[in-house]
Design brief:
Distance between the termini: 17 Å
Strand content: 5-15%
Number of domains: 1
Order of helices and strands: HHHHHEEEEH
Helix content: 55-70%
Number of strands: 4
Radius of gyration: 16 Å
Shape: globular
Length: about 150
């Protein structure tokens, strides 16, 4: 739950992007359907479990927000009219083939900008692997604690 939301904050891609890319590759939905799902659900906050999460981590909401805001990449997020906005959303083009980063292909930029982003994508992919393992361990511990 929170691992997908935190992934969205850190990388600009959440569970909807991940799941949709797989569904497109497997031919279960069209690219157009996938884009609509991503626009609707990516970054959805898991409010149902938020109080439990805060209690488990022994933190309050203000501290949670303070911490996650530190993880927002400035090349992805900006504060617009007092609210965080994902600014690189238009660079992601969900495709139908496998890719390092949830089948997301960078489009609409100059060649120099694309190369810079491709280099960043490789670094992010490596970081995300570590991040995913940490989130999986946290989720496993959390589930075990519930039992």
């Amino acid at each position: 739950m929170f691992n997908y939301y935190l992934s969205y904050i850190k990388f600009g891609l959440g569970r909807a992007t991940s799941d949709t890319a797989h569904e497109i590759r497997d031919g279960h939905i069209t690219r157009s359907e996938g884009i609509n799902l991503i626009k609707r659900f990516d970054g959805e906050f898991p409010s149902k479990y938020f109080p439990t999460f805060l209690e488990y981590c022994n933190i309050d909401q203000d501290y949670f927000i303070e911490v996650i805001d530190v993880w927002r990449s400035p090349h992805l997020w900006k504060i617009i009219a007092g609210k965080w906005e994902l600014i690189k959303e238009n660079r992601l083009n969900i495709c139908g083939s496998s890719d390092l980063f949830f089948c997301a292909e960078l489009t609409g930029d100059s060649d120099e900008e694309k190369q810079s982003l491709v280099n960043q994508k490789t670094n992010i992919s490596n970081q995300m692997s570590i991040y995913s393992r940490v989130c999986s361990m946290f989720t496993s511990i959390w589930r075990a604690k519930e039992i």
